[in-house]
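pinging the channel bc i need a second pair of eyes. not urgent but kinda urgent?? the chain im working w is below, pasted from the shared doc
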Amino acid sequence: MRLRNPIRQFKSFLDTATVENAFYLDGAVPLSRALPLGLQHMLSMFMSNVTPALICMAIIGLDSPLALSVIQSSIFMAALGTAIQCFPIFRLGGKLPLVMGTSFTFMGAVTMIGSSYGLSTAFISLIIGGVIIGFLGLFAAKWHRFIRPIVSSMVVIGLGLSLLSVGINDFFAIDAPGVVVDGQYAIQNAWPYLIVATITLLSSFFWQVFVKGMWRNISVLVGLVVGYLTALCFMGYNQMVDFSVFSFNSIRDVIDLPRPFFLFIDVSIGDINFGAILAIVIMYLVSTTECIGAVESLTAGSFDRAPTPREISGAVTAYGFVSAFAGLFGAQPLTGYSQNVGIVNQTKVVNRFVVFQTAVILFAASLFPPVARFFQTIPQPVLGGTMILLFASIVISGVQMFARAGFTRKNIMIASFAIGIGYTATLVPALQNIQTEIVWIQYLLLLIRNPMVNMFLISFVLSYAIPEEKEPALDESSKPENKD
């Protein structure tokens, strides 16, 4: 059997490119259109992708070679996960335009395990947990049916609600220096950030409303560009755009490859901790529902259908094994990024080749540190101005999934408990700062501080605990009269 030249195959594929293919799952799209759309996806998730690494690596010092390598690895793994989801390898990948990125779910667990037992224990636990979930993903078609539609809708709603706080914090630049003084929002210092955020939001909004045709779909990218240029105008006032992240002291500051974590720190058999592994596996199980929720939100919002068993199985299997591979390089596990699902659902650009360009750009950013460092200069209010509506659209996607599950009395009770208890409990600061010396309680608190964990557990238990009710049939006396 003669193998065809892959370069010739790819060229033949590009020769069939049309703009209309952007609204179909398969087919080529001209690179002049596909690359800007892919860049839009990349810009919308880049900071979210590296933020967990920045926070967790604070325990070893952000200037250390390991910390810089972990940030680079996080970008590389996001590219790998996205590429495999778009174009599967064997049974890895859902064959969907799903952008993968670092999950926030593991941030607290990795930080605590790393501080208590060492980073090598945390990374080993991530690898083992990812392999377990990867094998479970091969059989996802068999166990996924036990997660009822109302449960998945609660996870998506919980994810959207939790991200809204991130978006609004970025919009108002809460973490910027001098914005919050003695617990008060200092408007005299914050007004430049508000101007940038508002201009970013309005630029994206008006572009989406008034621009026609294919170019309408890059509204997020337009908002980011306009917002960034506006932020540069305040350089002389508050250095909103920080170029100090650039440094060129060696060749590795220009081009470099991600490296495994064991090249930076010592590893031994004693670093295997079964308690840490169990905690990480539980976090993986919760994050699996997040990944499935992203897949369901994508297919519901863009294809008006539920995902197929093959799509679920492929997506979860890729999520598990790629996350395990990420752990080998010191990066945290991945998940399907709902802000990018929001872009797909909003623009209806569902083409896999388009989203694959996101992976291509991420690969470039991971290999060339200056590219990655440039995107790190995007200010908070610019991200907030573009992300806040996308995060809100995730909540709407969850509500749409809720509607498909049905507004039955049982589902309404489940949603009321899941949101009323599971989500709102995470809004009370005192409940987020419970201190204890008992290790297993520390692990438990890490779980229940996550709104998606709470809403998943509550809705899952109640979906089986509350008996099904049949809608009462209309008798003859209750039927509406026919006035004709």
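so Residues 148 and 464 are 9 Å apart (CA to CA). and The radius of gyration is 23 Å. — does that match what u expected or am i reading it wrong
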